[in-house]
Write a structure and sequence with these properties.
4 strands; about 15% helix; single chain; IS110 family transposase; mainly beta; about 60 residues; 4-stranded mixed beta sheet
Length: about 60
């Protein structure tokens, strides 16, 4: 396994919805943020590492 945690992001102009799956425990964590990439990064840093992250492709996610 390459990652301990997988994170998926749904990025919109005013918000970012995030869901994470921790492989070792089966835990699922979900959060919604205002459009604040730094807050998303800080949240992701609290999850077991290494973490892989992906997002749906679209124009609002490119700044992440």
């Amino acid at each position: 396994m390459l990652y301990s945690t997988s994170i998926g992001l749904d990025v919109h102009a005013r918000s970012i919805s995030a869901a994470a799956f921790v492989f070792e425990t089966g835990e699922v964590a979900q959060r919604t943020f205002g459009y604040d990439p730094d807050a998303v990064a800080a949240w992701a840093a609290t999850l077991p590492q290494p973490a892989g992250c992906l997002y749906e492709s679209g124009p609002t996610g490119f700044d992440l």
